[in-house]
Amino acid sequence: MSNIILVHKMKILEQKLSRIDLNLLVSLSVLLKERHVGRAAEILFITQPAMSRTLQRLRDLFDDQLFYRTSVGISPTAKALELERILPETLESLNNILSSEEFEPSTCEQSFSISIPSMLSHNVILPLFNLLHKEAPNVQLTESTAKSNPFELLEAGTLDFAIHVAKDIPPRFNAMFIGTVKPVIFARKGHPLVGSEKATLDECLEYDFVALHVENNQSAKFTGPVEFMLAKKGASKEPIYKTSQLQMLLEIMENSDCLFVGPSLLGSSPDLINRFKPVYEFNLPKKDMIEFFLLEHKRSENSKAHQWFKSKLLNQIEKFY
């Protein structure tokens, strides 16, 4: 009896799905990411009137308004937000079904997005880009700065991967331990503290600090390396300048006596080793060391394209550990 019911339910499901154009789900995914009808039309290479007609078909399909117009774009309804939560995994599953053949990088047209701290990006992204451009010339790569809470973006499919410092990872995500970094205070090559006897923390605190900015989130343990590291030593020093752009931070350091708290591996970068020198090393217990993890949503663990990209990314990261 149960088999008969199951067959009947499957038949109804098949009949219902047969009336759905799967392209509508792709359009919905783009609308949810862009929150703008015009930009969604550009991405899908259709006119704005055609995009508006597609939106109306989506409203009819889901019997919901889905989006309301605002002065800056469109705002999703509760139903649309619910769909946003499950749609990335659904599309990824469909992609895996349709792409069961052997993965070939040279023909891959996948887009990958990654959130990575600027201090790692400086050493990793350029060689990764060169490798991707050589092996998979049609692949697109989008990089964004580190997020103190990347989980919602990974859930929504806005991010494919994120390099993160949190240890408490929700079960729907895969987390691969990358390594532990040793925090160091850096100064420009001609800084007064460089070349003298080993500097003390008190001597360093006589100078101003600059810092890399991470998207603020009060629940994040490690949002500011300067404040975090100095607090561990019972000291306090508010950075006079914060930025998400590592190059700008380095330019300011080279033209001032400002100091910077960063990972020791930054000093091994070929183009930085002759410009900046470590002047103080934090000796912290293991429990207070900074651990980096590579995060991904579990929906991509069976995607050959994602796992290929992940392996290339890890290969570049491992060169600096």
Automatic annotation (TrEMBL):
PROSITE patterns: HTH_LYSR. InterPro entries: LysR-type_TF, LysR_HTH_N, LysR_subst-bd, WH-like_DNA-bd_sf, WH_DNA-bd_sf. Keywords: DNA-binding, Transcription, Transcription regulation. Coiled coil: none annotated. The keyword Cell cycle does not apply. Signal peptide: none annotated. Residues 20-77 form the HTH lysR-type domain. Belongs to the LysR transcriptional regulatory family. This is LysR family transcriptional regulator.
